[in-house]
Queue: 3 jobs
Job 1
Amino acid sequence: MSEGILDYYEVIDGFLYNTNLKPDLQFLPVALREYEGLRRSRGYAQRIVTVPEDPGHIAIPNRNVFRYGQRVLPGSAFWAYSFIASTGLFSVQVRDNCSDETLFSEVILASPGSADQNPLPKLMVVGEPGLLNFEICSLSGVDTTGVQLILWGGEPKFPTGAVE
C-alpha cells in the first residue's frame, strides 16, 4: 500500500493509540492549533483594537490611504481580524512601528454584512515599544466612509516588570 501525505503527520491522540486519527490540514484547524498555547495561558486578557475608533467621521478618498497609530501593551497577541465596509476593494496593512516590519497585510473585497472574524495565518505578537501603524487604502475608485478594521486578541495581564 502506498503512503499518503497524511502518513507524514503525527498522531493526534496518543492516548487511544489510534494511528488513523490525523490532523485536518485545512486552514482553520491548522491556525487554531498554532494558538493552542496562548488559548491555554491564563496570562492574557481580551484586547480588541478598532481602527478607526469612530468610523463614521473618517473618509478615505479614492485611491488614498488612511494612516493611524495605536498603542498596545508589548507582548499583546492578535489572532483574528474583522473588516467592516459597505462595499469596495481595500488594502490593509499593520506594521510594527519600531522595526517597521509588516505584521499583517491583506487585500479585502468588502460586501455588506461581511464582518466575520478571519483568523490570521499566524499569531501576531507585538514587541517593544508596543506601537502599531495601520494603513487602510481604498482601491475601489470612490471616496469611502464607514470603514473599520478590528483586531481580536489579548494583552498580557501582567506586563513586564509588574508583580502578580
Note: The first helix runs from residue 27 to 34.
Job 2
Amino acid sequence: MLSGLWITALLCGLFLTGGLIEYPAQAIGKLEEVITRLQTRYEGIEDLQADFTQVTQFKGFTQTLTSRGRFFLKKGKLRWDYLEPSQQQIFVEGDNVLFYVPEHQQVIKTRLGVELDSQVPVRLLAGSGHLDRDFNIRWRDEAKQQGPGGAYLLTLISKTPTPDFAEIQIEVAPKDFLIRKISLQEPGGNGSTFEFSQMKINHGLKDRLFTFAIPEGVVVVEQP
C-alpha cells in the first residue's frame, strides 16, 4: 500500500488545471469545459473528507486485494487512513511525510523535496505541483465520453515516463463535478481502483486531525 500509487487516487480532483493534447475542435471545447468546471469545483474546497474502497489487481493473479479506509484533506495537509484489512496511516504536511504501520511498530519519515517521479502524486497533494505540468489529459474513449450515470471518463498520461504508473483514469460525476472513481495502471501490469463515498466538503476540519503523535516504543526511520 505504501508504493508510489498510494495517494494518486486524490490528486486528479484536487489540483486539476489543464494540460491538453491536440484534439479536433469540437472535442476540445467539451473537454476543456469539463476540466474547467472540475477545477472550479475544487477551487472552492477548503477541506474534504471521504471514505474509499481500493481494489488492487496484481499481474498474474486472479485474486484481488480489497482495502478500505478514509482520507482527510485541508489546504497543504493530508491524512490517509487504511482501516481494512490492516491499519496504516499517512500524514502529509508541506514537504514532510509520515508513514505509520502499527503492526510493524514503525514510523517512516521522509520529505518531498527530492525530484523523483514516484513522488509526483504526493507533491501534487501537498500543493507543490501542478497536473498541467506533469500530465496530458484526454477522453478515455473519444467515441464514448460518458459512462454509467453520465460520468465523464478522462485519462491522464504522465508527460515524463515514470516507473510508478502508466496512466490514470478518472470518473467525474456530472451533477457536482466531484471525482467518484479513479483507476491506476502500472507499467508492469498491476492496477488499483479507488471508489469514493460519503464525501463531505468544507466541514471545518481541525488542524489537530492532521497532527501525528509518535507512540511510545515505536521505531522512527528517517529517509532522505
Note: The domain at 8-222 is CATH 2.50.20.10 (outer membrane lipoprotein receptor (LolB), chain A).
Job 3
Amino acid sequence: MESTAANATTNDDDIAIEFRDVSYSLPSGQRLLSDLNLQVHRGQTLVLLGRSGSGKTTTLKLVNRLLMPSGGEVRVKGDTGDVIRLRRSIGYVIQEVGLFPHYTVERNIALVPEIEDWPKERIQTRVQELQRIVGLEPHLGSRYPRELSGGQRQRVGVARALAADPPILLMDEPFGALDPLTRDELQREFLALQQRLRKTVVFVTHDLREALRLGSSIALMEAGKLVTVLPPQDFLRSSDPWAAAYVKAFGVGPDSADRGAS
C-alpha cells in the first residue's frame, strides 16, 4: 500500500484517531472490515472513499462506538472508556440529518448543550453563533424541520454536531442527497468552516470529486480493506489500480484537487 502523511509515524499527541489491526464482522460471521490500520491527525479532514459496501460507514461508526470492533483496537484521543461521554464529544452528521421533527431549529441545535447542563444564557448565545456560522438566518430558529429546505436541514445538522464544540466531527455522506447547486454551496461552506475551526474530520463519500475538494487525505476502501491513503494530488497520479480506476471513472485530472487544504 502506498504510504502518506496520514499513516506516517508522528508524535502521538498529533494523532486524534487510530485504527490498529481492526476487523469487524456481523453476528452471521460476514466480515465487513479486515486488518484496518489507519491514523487520523488532529485538524485533518480524512475522506473515506469507496463504493457501497466497501466498509466506509462501518469504519466511521467504530470511532464513536456505535459499533465495536471484532478484533484490533480503535483509539480516540481523550477517550476515558465512558461511551456516552465519548459520543457527546464527537459531532456526527449523516445524510438523513436525523433532526427531531417536534423540536424547533434552535432546540435541535441546543440538544447536546442542554444534556450537558449548560446555562441557558450560554446555550442561547451558542445557538445564535452557530446559526451565523452555518448560514442560517435568525428567523429560521423558530421553525420546525418540516418547514425547511434540504439544504437548510443539513445546515441545522452541522450546527447541532458542532454545538458543544467537539474536537472530532464524523460526516457520513452529508451532502449526498442534495441537488448539485446546494451541494456545491455546502461544500464551499464546509471548507470555510474547517479553515476557521480546524476540527478533526472523518468524511465518508463515494464521490471522488467531493473527496478531492474536501479532503486533506483520501483513504480508498474496497471490500472491507484499506487500499491506499494519499493526499488529493498524489491520489490523482497514483499507480494503484483501484485509485486509477476511480480517476478514470470520474474523468478527473491533476488540476481537479483545487479545493485548497483543509
Note: The chain has two domains: 1-89+170-262, 96-166.
